[in-house]
Design goal:
Helix content: 25-40%
Strand content: 5-15%
Bound molecules: zinc ion
Strand order of the largest sheet: 3-4-5-6-7-8-9-10
Low-confidence stretches: 1-41, 83-87
Structural class: alpha/beta
Number of strands: 11
Shape: globular
Largest sheet: 8 strands, parallel
Distance between the termini: 26 Å
Oligomer: single chain
């Protein structure tokens, strides 16, 4: 379904003179031709939330945030060998549910909790949050990075890890695998490659989407092609790139968007999932996005904030940050409403939706 009309009526575009207008028109045309929504029911596709499987259409016009944190435990990740205490004082169902409900008033309809079991993802806690909000909560699983892996990962085979992931995904109603990360290093370690391949194999048996964590912005050890090598590892077991989101790409300062275009050219989603945070200021993230959209990749972009609510972080804009802080910056740069709708509504649903 194509619609090549451009929003002629937009006053802001008229007021911005010829250069702005032409960019705005261009982005509008790209957006109109690039995406597809879920206007009609499509072949048994569902998004698996903690409470039920929902057809993507039932999310209406609300946005989906594909990478946030509702039960991430920093104390655990930062403990010795990434294995600190398993609960923090900030873990309060009422407080987290309240934050999620605020995000609902800002246009959020679905939040993916990007926690894995080795960063303290707590399915029981998430379920209690889900029961106190109208926002759909999607739980995830997998393994974060070598320093947080449980000791048995070292001795288990790829297939044994995949078996564990498939079993856990069914038992705990995972809606995706993520965030799957790696240590900031020049090359992916053999152990992390084993985990990436195991997650890929678990995906082939469950159809659950996969999203990753990259360490861009943490120092010179991380090569520019780190996101591509993650895709290589997943593709090496037969994962289709269309089912993968390569994460934290907005932390790579790449004004011409070269690396993310390479990722999108292979068919994968590109995660701008640290909007308003991370190593690269928002104006540079916007520059990258404009270059990416002009190259025709509106369908491949996902936005989220990687926000982790704790009592200490309560002053930040919260789970709605992507919509309340970052999206206005895209609008100001000339990205039109139709493109924003595709990016915030259609793309994350298409990413998550699968045949159970
Ligand atoms: Zn995260």
């Amino acid at each position: 379904m194509r619609n090549t009309s451009v929003d002629e009526s937009d006053k802001a575009a008229r007021d911005h003179g010829p250069a702005q207008l032409s960019r705005r028109d261009l982005l509008g045309v790209l957006a109109a031709g690039a995406g597809f929504g879920f206007g009609q029911a499509r072949g048994g596709l569902v998004i698996r939330t903690l409470l039920k499987d929902v057809p993507p259409d039932t999310l209406g016009t609300a946005a989906t945030l594909f990478h946030e944190h509702l039960s991430f435990e920093w104390a655990r990740v930062r403990g010795p060998n990434g294995r600190g205490p398993s609960s923090g004082p900030e873990k309060d169902v009422g407080l987290v549910a309240e934050q999620v409900n605020i995000a609902a008033t800002e246009g959020v309809g679905c939040i993916v909790d990007a926690g894995t079991s080795d960063v303290g993802r707590d399915a029981g806690f998430l379920k209690q949050v889900a029961e106190r909000t109208s926002v759909h909560i999607v739980a995830c699983g997998g393994l974060y990075m070598a320093r947080t892996y449980p000791p048995e990962v070292a001795t288990k085979s790829e297939d044994q890890i995949a078996d564990d992931l498939v079993r856990d995904a069914r038992a705990s109603r995972y809606g995706a695998f993520g965030e799957i990360g790696e240590t900031p290093d020049a090359a992916m370690s053999p152990e992390e490659r084993k985990v990436f391949r195991a997650v890929g194999k678990a995906h082939l048996r469950t159809n659950l989407a996969i999203f990753t964590h990259n360490a861009y912005g943490t120092g010179p050890n991380v090569p520019r092609d780190a996101g591509l090598r993650q895709l290589d590892a997943l593709e090496s077991v037969g994962v289709k790139p269309q089912r993968v989101a390569v994460g934290h790409m907005c932390c790579l300062d790449d004004p011409l968007a070269g690396v993310i275009k390479d990722i999108a050219r292979r068919g994968a989603f590109v995660g701008f999932d640290r909007v308003t945070g991370g190593a690269v200021p928002d104006d540079r993230k916007v520059t990258m996005i404009l270059a990416f959209l002009e190259a025709g990749y509106a369908d491949n972009l996902l936005l989220s904030a990687d926000y982790n609510f704790t009592a200490r972080s309560a002053a930040r804009p919260g789970y709605g940050t992507t919509l309340t802080v970052f999206v206005p910056k895209l609008r100001q740069a000339g990205v039109n409403d139709e493109t924003i709708r595709r990016i915030t509504i259609d793309n994350p649903r298409r990413f998550l939706a699968f045949v159970a």
